[in-house]
């Protein structure tokens, strides 16, 4: 059941329907980490007071749970979560977003650290290798303002020119059974970029939330640090690593996720060399292969 609801207000449920758990999502912006809504059951014959509420901001989805999914303490049992990386994962490398981003990062290094083009490129790659995020090196060693960096790099990318709605991706995500699994974004980008990408791909309404690298926070917490994976689990509402499933194009992110107890599929696009040693249990060449890798989460196995 989908209802429209108002931020900081109440959801009124009339018998015989019962809301056991509430998850919130929005096409305008994800709610992290938890929705601030109160669910109230009303007696039969009562009319919920709906007048005088502020503007509609979020849609709420209610899941009615069967008794076998309720723990002894009456709380909903933890549902598995399927985490999706965003960049070079939800869209192919052929979009060349990575190259566009690398160019902007190099320019940023050149300008802000007064480096030659060659040295800027070298340092950028060194930080990326060492920290998994070029920005991490900039913040750590040069006290760069992360949000200013974000506005000059991620937010300055001409994504509108290269990313388009992807019907196949949309179908794949729609075929995931939300009664069986929570579908969650997990990125090292800042929230603006993450939201922008899924909106341009036309799939922003198909994820229940987003865990991103908070550039406003220092020190930065990002994949592959364990803290970032724990943050994702907290935000997605999952407690046990064995309930976490993940797809990412980064070897290191996949390797670490598996080390932390997640079940992982490493996306190595067709045409790119497979690593000599697999990073994790599963390797896939295209996201559509998730239907076979994690068939337990799909409504059907047909593409
Ligand atoms: Mg990626």
Q: Span from first to last CA?
A: 26 Å
Give the low-confidence spans: 1-42, 50-70
Measured by DSSP, the beta-strand proportion falls in 15-25%
CATH topology of the largest domain, by name, is Rossmann fold
The level-1 CATH class of the largest domain: Alpha Beta
The CATH level-2 architecture of the largest domain is identified as: 3-Layer(aba) Sandwich
When the domains are counted, the total is 3
Average pLDDT metric: 81
Detailed description of the structure:
It contains ten helices and eleven strands. The relative contact order is 0.13. The radius of gyration is 21 Å and the shape is globular. Strands 8-7-6-9-10-11 form a six-stranded parallel β-sheet, with helices on both faces. Strand 7, helix 7 and strand 8 form a beta-alpha-beta unit. It has helices spanning 97-113, 117-131, 134-142, 146-152, 159-162, 167-174, 191-200, 226-236, 251-259, 290-293; strands spanning 2-6, 10-13, 21-25, 38-41, 56-63, 81-84, 182-186, 209-211, 244-248, 263-267, 282-284. The longest helix is centred in the middle third of the chain and has 17 residues, at 97-113. The protein folds into three domains: 2-68, no CATH class; 81-92 and 163-297, 3-Layer(aba) Sandwich (Rossmann fold), CATH 3.40.50; 94-160, DNA polymerase, domain 1 (Orthogonal Bundle), CATH 1.10.150.450. Helix 2 packs across helix 3 (134-142). By secondary structure, it is of the alpha/beta class. Bound molecules: magnesium ion. Magnesium ion (MG) binds next to loops. InterPro entries: HAD-like_sf (IPR036412), HAD-SF_hydro_IA (IPR006439), HAD_sf (IPR023214), Pyr-5-nucltdase (IPR010237), SSM1_domain (IPR052791). It comes from Sodiomyces alkalinus (strain CBS 110278 / VKM F-3762 / F11) (Alkaliphilic filamentous fungus). GO terms for molecular function: nucleotidase activity.
């Amino acid at each position: 059941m989908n209802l429209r609801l108002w931020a900081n207000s109440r959801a009124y449920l009339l018998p015989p329907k019962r809301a056991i758990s509430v998850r919130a999502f929005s096409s305008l912006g994800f709610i992290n980490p938890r929705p601030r809504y109160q669910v109230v059951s009303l007696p039969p014959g009562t009319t919920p007071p709906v007048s005088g509420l502020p503007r509609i901001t979020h849609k709420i989805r209610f899941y009615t749970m069967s008794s076998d999914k309720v723990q002894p303490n009456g709380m909903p049992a933890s549902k598995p979560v399927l985490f999706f990386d965003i960049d070079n994962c939800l869209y192919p490398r052929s979009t060349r977003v990575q190259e566009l981003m690398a160019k902007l990062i190099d320019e940023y290094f050149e300008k802000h650290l007064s480096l030659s083009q060659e040295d800027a490129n070298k340092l950028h790659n060194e930080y990326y290798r060492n920290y998994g995020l070029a920005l991490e090196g900039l913040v750590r060693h040069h006290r760069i303002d992360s949000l200013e960096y974000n506005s000059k790099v991620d937010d300055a990318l001409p994504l509108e020119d290269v990313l388009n709605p992807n019907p196949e991706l949309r179908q794949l995500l729609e075929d995931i059974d939300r009664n069986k699994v929570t579908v969650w974004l997990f990125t090292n980008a800042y929230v603006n970029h993450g939201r922008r990408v899924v909106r341009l791909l036309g799939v922003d309404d198909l994820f229940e939330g987003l865990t991103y690298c908070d550039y406003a926070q220092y020190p930065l917490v990002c994949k592959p640090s364990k803290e970032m994976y724990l943050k994702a689990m907290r935000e997605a509402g999952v407690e046990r690593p064995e309930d976490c499933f993940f797809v990412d194009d980064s070897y290191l992110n996949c390797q670490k996720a598996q080390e932390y107890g997640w079940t992982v599929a490493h996306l190595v696009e067709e045409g790119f060399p497979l690593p000599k040693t697999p990073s994790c249990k599963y390797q896939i060449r295209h996201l559509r292969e998730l239907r076979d890798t994690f068939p337990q989460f799909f409504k059907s196995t047909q593409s």
